[in-house]
């Protein structure tokens, strides 16, 4: 029952977001085939589909938040806030490296595996995003590639 209440409340927020995405976001020019207006609209559509599925068939398991789980959620919130705050000053590669490594370590990876994953996400994500997709990402203290 709590899944349906959550989905219904979030559905209202998604409908408001979708309305804003359809009616408010207007770009003066389009630099890619879909344009910057399409991504928020597609995101709203995907969120509505997911919420409809959750309303139709909610999770059968109950939600039991124990103290260790609550602490892990707070740690994840701290990691996300830190990533957002350090994204521009440290740049994409370093901020993503730190976030991915600490996140994977928190989820049980060894230090070696966490550092390798963070390195792959930071450098690989930069190569894909800036190199292949031609997106502007902050360099931070590292020189641009």
Short description:
The protein is mainly alpha-helical and 145 residues long. It is built from 4 helices and no strands. It folds into 2 domains: 2-56; 67-132, no CATH class.
Task: Please explain how this structure is put together.
With 145 residues, the chain is an all-alpha fold. It has two domains: 2-56; 67-132, no CATH class. 71% of the residues lie in helices and 0% in strands. It is built from four helices and no strands. It has helices at 2-23, 38-56, 67-106, 111-132. Helix 1 runs antiparallel to helix 2 (38-56) and helix 3 (67-106) crosses helix 4 (111-132). The N and C termini lie far apart (51 Å).
Describe the structure using short key phrases.
flat; 2 domains; 145 residues; mainly alpha
Assembly of the depicted chains? single chain
What characterizes the major β-sheet? none
Mean pLDDT: 84
What is the domain total for the residues?
Answer: 2
State which percent range the strand residues make up: under 5%
The number of distinct β-strands equals 0
Number of helices: 4
Q: Return Rg in Å.
A: 19 Å
Q: Would you tell me the structural class of the helices and strands? A: mainly alpha
The helical percent reads over 70%
pLDDT < 50 runs, ≥5 residues: none
Distance N terminus to C terminus? 51 Å
* Anisotropy-based shape: flat
